[in-house]
Amino acid sequence: MIESTFQILPRFGPKKEATLWASGIRKWSEFIEADVVGNIKGEQKERMDSQLNYAYELLDSGDCLGLGNMLKPREHWRLYDRFKSTVGYLDIETDGLDRDSEITVVTVHKKSGTVTLVNGEDLSSESLSKALSDVSMLVTFNGRCFDVPTLRCSFPDVDLDLPHFDLRFGCKDIGMSGGLKNIERAIGLKRSEDIAEVDGLEAVRLWKRWTNRGDEESLRRLVEYNRADTINLEVLADTVYPRLVKEYAGFEEYIS
Fold first, then answer.
1. In the chain, N or C terminus with fewer CB closer than 10 Å?
2. Residues of the chain under the 50 pLDDT cut
């Protein structure tokens, strides 16, 4: 999809991009190879060709951040398929339900493995930075509003300035509403019986049972719940992404 994204060009919005696609120009290479595109020609065309060639350089070098900087944040989802091998699926738990709460557990799920960090044990700026060191893009559910701002507040030294595919908004764009658990059920995702009924409020209770009583079973369930959140994000992203492509572009042959 990223090679079919023309919103990296100046003054190119969704309508102009859709018009370009409808005219048969569906990839950067097709734009560059054409002498004239609509009423775009001459020096204006040369400047846009240069911009697209620069985007190809970023793509060839695997610079997800550079491409993300050319896009509006709400369009970062377009990078997902191309950079999936270096995506970090992220979720946090806290000891309350607001941004001022203390982070209790963080999991980063990625192709190279799943890393879970627990407050008071191994969660630190250093360990979180290490977990994210090979990540080029974040995938979360409501992470723009909660997870990332909360992490920035607690760990200001950790670099979280990565392209970000927030599935809460991606789901909304294709008509899938509700919280993560409801959406998981809608697409047929099931959790183990042990954590099937755990939600955000119960996650807070589990943490308090661990800190107040040393209840290791509560900590185990909390960690399992948090890890399931991130692992299921991968399945959800793989479900939502092609539907977003179809919703916005109307052609699935250019998904990659």
1. C
2. 254-256
Read off the amino acid at residue 190: K
Question: In 3-state terms, what secondary structure has residue 174?
Answer: coil
Cα separation of 54 and 47, whole Å? Answer: 11
Beta-bridge partners for 3:
none
CATH architecture of 2-61: Orthogonal Bundle (1.10)
What does the pLDDT look like over 24-43, one tens digit per residue? 999 999 999 999 998 999 99
> CA–CA separation, 185 vs 90, rounded Å?
20
Joined together, the tokens standing for residue 195 give: 């954590």
Listed in sequence order, the residues at least 6 apart from 86 whose beta carbon sits closer than 8 Å to its beta carbon are 62, 64, 110, 111, 134, 135, 136, 137
| Sequence ranges of the domains in the chain | 2-61, 84-244
d(C-alpha 10, C-alpha 72), whole Å: 12
Nearest to 24 by CA among 41, 4, 44: 4
Per-residue H/E/C for 115-144? EEEECCCCCCHHHHHHHHCCCCEEEECCHH
For residue 216, give every residue at least 6 positions away whose Cβ sits within 8 Å of its Cβ, in sequence order, or none: 210
**Hey, which CATH number is domain 84-244, 2.70.70.10, 3.30.420.10, 3.30.70.2860, 3.40.50.2000?**
3.30.420.10
Are 2-61 and 84-244 the same fold in CATH? no
Helix, strand and coil in the chain, % to nearest 5: 50, 10, 35
**Residue spans of beta strands (DSSP E) within the chain:** 87-94, 103-110, 113-118, 137-140, 164-166
Task: Decide: pTM greater than 0.85.
Answer: yes
